[in-house]
Amino acid sequence: MTELASGSTSQRELASESTSQRNTESITVTVNGHAYTADCEPRVTLADFLRHTCGLTGTHLGCEHGVCGACTILVDGRSARACLMLAVQADGATITTVEGLAAGNALNPLQEAFWDNHGLQCGFCTPGMLMTATELLADNPDPDAAEVREGLSGNLCRCTGYDSIVRSVLDAAQRMRG
Amino acid sequence: MKPPAVRYARAGDVREAVALLAEHGSDAKVLAGGQSLVPLMSFRLARPSILVDINRIGGLDRIEQDNGSLLIGAMARQRDVELSDVAAAAVPLLPQALRYVGHVTIRNRGTVGGSLAHADPAAELPAVVTALGGELVLEGPGGTRSVAAEDFFTGTFTTVMAPDEVLVGVRLPRLPDRTGVAVEELARRHGDFAIVGVVAAVHLADDGTVDLVRLAASGVDSVPVRLHAAEAALSGARPTADVLEAAAATVDASIHPADDVHAPASYRRHVARLLVQRALGAAVERSGVER
C-alpha cells in the first residue's frame, strides 16, 4: 500500500487537472428503472457516477482496478465491473445495482438466502457477490458447488472463507427453482 | 485510483476513428472494452490525452465464417465469442482458451481486438492467434493491411500498429473437423494471468499420423511464441508418448522466459515443457471426434 500511496496523484494535481482540461458530456443512464441525466467528465468511472451522481452507494469500491469485484453491476443485463467502465460509455444503458434487487423492504430470494445462510459478515463484498450471483443463476439455474466457486472466483471476500457464500447461492438456486 | 483527466470522442465509423488518431497522434488511445486500459489509467500508467471510443461502430462485433476462415471483429466481446456456435465450429480452440481469460464479468466487456492490441505476453488470445497463424486486419489513413500474428507482436505490450491505425478484426483459419484442441495453463488462481500457458491443436490423418499441429506458448517471452520445432517433431509422426516427449524437449530452445516476482525463468522453462507435453497429449486424445 505504501508504494501505491507514494505513486498516487496529489490533491493539487487532481485540482489542476480538473480545472485545466475540464470537458463534460451529457449522459443519460437508466438505473433500477430511474433515468438519471447529468453532465459528466470522461474520466469519471461508472462506479463513481453511480455513487456520487446518482447517490447509489450500494455499489462498493474496493480495489478500483478490476480485481476485487465489489463494484459489480449489471449493464444491459450482463455483469460488469463499474470501476472498469467510464460513465460516458454507459450513455443510454440500462443498469441494475444492488439497490434494484429488493422490492422495497422485501428481499429477493438471493438476498434472503444470503441472510439465512450467513453469506456475509462485514458486508463489503456483498453487493458484488449478489450481482455476480444474479447473472450466474440466470445463466445456470442449477449450478453445483464447483460451478458456484468458479462463478464467484472474481469476487474477493476477506471475512467468510467463502463457504457460507457458496451455500447461500446454492440455497438461492433451489428457492428460485421452486 | 482515479483515471486522469482525459478528453473523449465517440467514433461513428472506423474512418472517423482513424482520423481522430491521426489528428492526436500517440497521445490518443483507442477505447474498446476498457478492461486493461481503464485500470492502467487508474494506476496512471497510461495517460492518454484523448480516448477514441470504438464501442458504437456498427459491424465491428461480427463473428462469421467466410471462405474457410473465421472472421472476428475487433469489438466482439470475449464472452460472445466464447458462447458463439460459429466460433466453436470453426476454431474450437478459441472458446476453450477464452474460458481462462479473467472471469465472466471481465469477458462480458473485454474484446478480442482489445486483448490482441494490448499484447500482454501472458494473455491467451495472442497465443491462440499466434498458434493458428491468424491475420490481424489493421485500418489506417492509407487503407487496410493484414499482418500475420507472428509479425504483429513485437514485445511486451507492443505491436507493429502505427499510432493512427485501428485493429478492426482478426482472421483465423478454420480447423478441419476432428481436430483435437487443448489449453493448459499454470496460474496462481483461476482467472489470473498465466505464469505459463500452452495452446495446442492436433489433427490425425487416416493412418494415425499427425497431419496438422499448431502450438504456441504464453508467458515464456516478451511475445507469444509459436513452437515451430515442437510442431516439426510431431508433424508426420505417430503421436506416441515418446514422440510427444521428444517434441516437448525442443521447447527449451524456442523460449526466452524472464525472472519475475511470479516465477524464475528456470521454473517457467520446466513448466513450459511439461505443459506442452500435456497439451499435445490432450489434443491427440480429443482428435478424431466429429464436431
From TrEMBL, chain A:
Annotated 2Fe-2S ferredoxin-type domain residues: 25-101
CDD domains for this protein: fer2 (cd00207)
Region of interest called Disordered, as start-end residue ranges on this chain: 1-24
Biological or metabolic pathway of the protein: Alkaloid degradation; nicotine degradation
Enzyme class, first EC level, given as a word: oxidoreductase
Keyword annotations of the record: 2Fe-2S, Iron, Iron-sulfur, Metal-binding, Oxidoreductase
Gene Ontology molecular function: 2 iron, 2 sulfur cluster binding; metal ion binding; oxidoreductase activity
Enzyme Commission code(s) on record: 1.2.99.2
Gene3D superfamilies with a match to the protein in the record: 3.10.20.30, [2Fe-2S]-binding domain (1.10.150.120)
A Pfam short name: Fer2
Keyword Iron-sulfur recorded: yes
Domain of life: Bacteria
Keyword presence, Iron: yes
Protein name per the record: Carbon-monoxide dehydrogenase (Acceptor)
Protein source organism: Pseudonocardia dioxanivorans (strain ATCC 55486 / DSM 44775 / JCM 13855 / CB1190)
TrEMBL record, chain B:
Keyword Chloroplast set for record: no
Annotated FAD-binding PCMH-type domain residues: 1-177
Keywords per UniProt: FAD, Flavoprotein, Oxidoreductase
Enzyme class label: oxidoreductase
Catalytic activity, EC: 1.2.99.2
SUPFAM superfamilies, alphabetized: CO dehydrogenase flavoprotein C-terminal domain-like, FAD-binding/transporter-associated domain-like
Entry-linked Pfam families: CO_deh_flav_C, FAD_binding_5
Signal sequence region: none
PROSITE patterns documented for this protein: FAD_PCMH (PS51387)
Protein name: Carbon-monoxide dehydrogenase (Acceptor)
Molecular-function GO term, any one: oxidoreductase activity
InterPro entries: CO_DH_flav_C (IPR005107), CO_DH_flav_C_dom_sf (IPR036683), Diverse_Substr_Oxidored (IPR051312), FAD-bd_PCMH (IPR016166), FAD-bd_PCMH-like_sf (IPR036318), FAD-bd_PCMH_sub1 (IPR016167), FAD-bd_PCMH_sub2 (IPR016169), Mopterin_DH_FAD-bd (IPR002346)
